[in-house]
Amino acid sequence: MSAVTIAIANQKGGVGKTTTTVNLGDALARSGIPTLIVDLDPQANATSSLGFEKKPGEGVYEPLLTGGDLSSRAIAARKNLWLVPSELDLAAAELELSSQKEYLTNLKASLSQLQKGKKIQAILIDCPPTLGLLSMNSLTAADHLIVTLQSEYLALEGLGQIVGVIDQLKESKLNKTLSLGGIVMTMYDGRTKLSQEVYAEACKHYKKKMFKNQIPRNIRLSECPSFGQTIFEYDPKSPGALAYQNLAKEVIKRFFSGSSKK
User: Most exposed residue of 48, 87, 95, 213, measured as fewest CB within 10 angstroms of its CB?
Assistant: First the structure.
């Protein structure tokens, strides 16, 4: 059975994309779903958030360019959780990919090979904060897109753009089955009128796609990456940990019904 592949993306930086990838990934793993995180962001924030360093020749760079097997690059990050780290040369990958004939399908080929050797049920891809070739490789390889939406009005402007990419990939037949898997509000403060209004506006256009659980502004979520820990290791009783635990339950119900051991 093929793993469910989810690209977590937003062309805007600082919207909780990596925080969501890492903590949702750990939450899924703790729920009994073997999970792989692929760090496709040259900044390598997902890699460092899990306590690893990006090193040349040990990450996603070479397999991405060749479509080769990623299995040897997947490292055990936690129980039931693996990581394919980012690496130093990944920033140059977009330029090199652009000269290749199959420049949008290499990651899909790599992930397909990896699944033959590992019993992975979930693959989360942390995309860079642009809609360049790295992100497009992720979306071509993904079954679903989860968008992290910051609780600000300007964030709504870019939402339509990234959702429009789904239609483009379908029309080009690069990924005919890609769907908008969901939209999760991040840095949400239910006490403020702004957060409430942004959520209401997003629901007006994407009601069925909105996750019911929002990720709050929580200092513990901001602190844990500097210790190389997920929120469940750093402060498992914090509002941030509870939020990601509840989000994972929604994700499991939506995409992995029957897969969880709990």
Answer: 95
